[in-house]
Amino acid sequence: RFHACKEDAKFAWVRALDFTPNSSFGECSTLVLKLSKGASVSYILESLPFSGELGELAIASMDVFGSSSNVVPLVDCPNGFSVPYEVLFRLNSLVHMGKLVARHVNADLFKVLEDLSIDTLRRIFEKMSKLKSTCYEPLQFIRHEAHSMNMRKKALSNKRESGKLMRCYRIHITPSKIYCLGPEEEVSNYVVKYHSEYASDFARVTFVDEDWSKLSPNALSARTEQGFFSKPLKTGLYHRILSILKEGFCIGPKKYEFLAFSASQLRGNSVWMFASNSSLTAENIRRWMGHFEDIRSVSKCAARMGQLFSSSRQTFEVSSYDVEVIPDIEVTTDGTKYIFSDGIGKISTRFARQVAKLIGLDPAHPPSAFQIRYGGYKGVITIDPTSFFNLSLRPSMKKFESKSTMLNITNWSKSQPCYVNREIISLLSTLGIKDEAFESMQQDDMHESDGMLTNKEAA
Q1: Helix (H) or strand (E) holding 167
Q2: CA distance 64 to 43
Q3: What are the residue boundaries of the RDRP core domain, all occurrences included (predicted)?
């Protein structure tokens, strides 16, 4: 419940962040109101929502506990204990969702967690996440669930994801909190698939409002001055997001750093982040993806980097000897150049059948077109029965230089219902279809519609 106040016409409201010293708003689900001596307590309490339902109040003192992280709240593994990173991530998720109290994630809890398998803990955490209220006795809950599983002797399934799926950590960052989600299964992309050894180091990070809705542009900048030359004020939320993208953030032993984002992620305020290690860093991945130094436009460079993060199916490595570069079909009219083959290449029938079989389609009837990502190339390839090369690509399909030779399929042509409309009729008429054929179809539909008014079975 919120109380509305009358806004002063000369005063501009600016979105602020957690202003408490220990990030109390982001750290806690319950807030303590501390009043100075001589304050009008009754007036303050009467101004609070649900003031009539508060009842008697008691003064109590507590030890202050907080997090030094800039995205709070976060819990870490105590010294002397070691658990899989997924366990630590899920513990953070339960704390963020209010299913666990941060103070209860202590050494006693980790001592119990170390003795259980990861599959058992997955089931226990999944059941805990479905609780309708906070679990104030996590030790008792975990021991009881583990004992029940042993008594039932259920085989704990370790279901492996198929080649087209991957397990991905998802993180939602709000103006005052962080929510850890997953790991969840989603369609893989070539970057994560290629670095599958470090798949658990990738994370999808989304910046959302406190209710998980999309952030408003006014939350990032506000105009506090009038005038043509006045500049908008960058809010604390803007600097919070910028700081996370520049400096990253830590969850347990891993520090996530900005990697890249796709076009669809940009619309949803999401990015890919990677926890760099001694063997692989985010910068190493960007260099492996391709050469982007020659792209001077920031937006275009970001879009090209996100090209490899599109959800796709990996098929075959296609060497440069099996790829030919063919010219675009260009026509110049009245000084204007038109490219009629923009983004359209070709694939041989033999290779199209191999690709169709690999992605689970009928090789005898392969799709007529595939949407692809191949190195720095992007576009659509159609079947050419006369082609002797596996792939025939055009200059208009090349977006950047890359040494990658994996053919990634993002989509393919499918059969869809077709409805006869004005455009289809005009097209078929120019191909020689007589008007009587369309008139006959129209009469049949009209008779069927009339029959629905008198015949219940037809209706």
Answers
A1: strand 165-173
A2: 27
A3: 173-458
